[in-house]
Amino acid sequence: MRILLYNPDNGVTRNFMPHLWMFLLQALTPPGHEVLLIDGNAKPMDEAQIAQFVRDQNIGLVGIGAMTRMVAKAYRMADAIRAAGVPVVMGGPHVTEEADEALGRDGGPRHADAVALGEADETWPQIVKDAVRGALKEIYAPVQNHNS
Ligand code: B12
Fold this sequence. Notes:
Elements: E1 2-7, H1 21-28, E2 34-39, H2 47-56, E3 59-65, H3 71-83, E4 88-91, H4 93-97, H5 99-102, E5 114-116, H6 124-132, E6 139-140
Parallel strand pairs: 1-2, 1-3, 3-4, 4-5, 5-6
Bound molecules: cobalamin.
């Protein structure tokens, strides 16, 4: 499967500070998949452009991460990707606190097929496997270590 990890542009201050999550999840992706990275600060895209990109590149899953300041753009891009028929998983600090908002469980529109809560180091490989089977769960909670 071809996977796109997308970080929306920071449309508030427009300062560019690359985020680490994309590189980490790319490294943690199980073998056999191709992972493409787009940071909107380096490659600005609008909704129509990202929908075209996922179609042209035969993308099977899109992961979007966002802090609160970029989440409105993240949701607009997620909506465009889902309308193109490609599932979206979202993660990062905003949707970790507001998973119901991303999943449309708060009365608003749904933006994501699945949400990864907290750190996704352990859950990302499972998310990819579930996406391949067409069986994404709505919520992926981080694996807790209760040894301490
Ligand atoms: C380092 C850091 C910074 C650094 C570097 C920022 C950068 N761009 O990389 C500096 C000091 C510059 C910084 C600045 C800011 N930061 Co800062 N920062 C952090 C900090 C301490 C760690 C982030 C990090 O790199 N973690 C390591 C990476 C690998 O982990 P991660 O990003 O959390 O990603 C993991 C999960 O979130 C999840 N995940 C994330 N995205 C996705 C996407 C998908 C698809 C999936 C499946 C999973 C997933 O999986 C990843 C792997 O486990 C966090 C607090 C914290 N302890 O997490 C705050 C934090 C992210 N920062 C925050 C804020 C608000 C800011 C600023 C906006 C502050 C300001 N007012 O200017 C600026 C924004 C600057 C910018 N343009 O990016 C907030 C965000 C809150 C929110 N609701 O959005 C946090 C959470 C702190 C807090 N508790 O308030 N920050």
